[in-house]
Amino acid sequence: MGAVPTVLNMIANSPLNDRKPLTHKVEILTGGSSPPPHVLSKMEELGFRVTHGYGITEAYGVATYSLWKPEWDSLPLDERAVLKSRQGVQHLCIEKVDVRDPETMENVPADGKSIDEIVLRGNTVMSGYLKDAKATEEAFRGGWFHSGDLAVKHPDGYIEIKDRLKDIIISGGENISTLEVERVLYSHPGVVEAAVVARPDDEWGQTPCAFIKLKEGFDEISAQEIIKFCRDHLPHYMAPKTVLFEDLPKTSIGKVKKFILREKAKALGSIH
How far apart (Å, rounded) are the C-alpha atoms in residues 223 and 185? Predict the structure, then answer.
């Protein structure tokens, strides 16, 4: 079956009395957004085997997939989930996927730390945007299609998205990946959904603002508890300074509408 991470999250957090044991292994292809490792580990515990694919409309579907290596089978569940959450290696049907400096088009070091943009080329990549020569020229500068996704490349060649270019939070000169913060939030036992955006801050420029939907029975969790949890699992500058509890707005395929959340965070005003 195929399912976006939002659906995986619904299955992973379904009530215990609604579950029935699987009689065989069920293969799932997921994509559309980055699945949190915590959700992937829960799905595996339930008997599902998830393969993560990364694609973009302009490249006609799946561009990379997280090809599983047999030697990873012996790793602990949480480590396997982290590996599965990576966007992986290029798919057979695309000529090339790489992580490069969008200005110089130089390769980033395969160190799992250096962040730059995912670029693609091949005959499944679009020829351009309809009646928009300016946007087409911008998208294909340097002879590659620029995805707008920021990623690192690991020593084994697998790529891992860190954020959308428009979503990255710059706080006191440090780049904060909203996906990394969200992954920690999803690992909290009381959180069922989470999304992080930038909020203006007078001192730091921007700081993380977390929007969270809690599981049933966890209504007593406070914003301070969530902030402390993040500070215990992340560098302190990456922890949200603002936490709001509400349902997350989504598209028809389950992607969180972060542009709405960015406007809400902006409307809160700057932190003094």
Answer: 12
pLDDT value of residue 74: 95
Which has the closest alpha carbon to 22: 53, 50, 47?
Answer: 47
* 92-104: burial string, b at 16+ Cβ within 10 Å, e else: eebeebbbbebee
Spatial neighbors of 132 by CB under 8 A, at least 6 apart, are: none
**Radius of gyration (C-alpha) of the chain in whole angstroms:** 19
Q: What is the pTM of this model?
A: 0.84
Q: How far apart are CA 235 and CA 142, in angstroms?
A: 36
Q: In 3D, which of 47, 49, 51 has the Cα closest to residue 20?
A: 47
Residue 254 has pLDDT above 90, yes or no: no
> For residue 62, what are the contacts with CB-CB under 8 A and spacing of at least 6?
31, 53, 54, 55, 91, 93
What sign does the CA torsion over 251, 217, 82, 109 have? positive
pLDDT of 141 reads: 93
pLDDT band at 94 (very low <50, low <70, confident <90, very high): very high
What are the helix (H) ranges across 76-200? 77-84, 133-139, 178-186
Q: Token match 């966890």: residue?
A: 218
In the 8-state DSSP scheme, what is residue 192?
E
User: What domains can you pick out in the chain, each with its CATH number?
Assistant: 5-90 (no CATH), 96-164 (2.30.38.10), 169-267 (3.30.300.30)
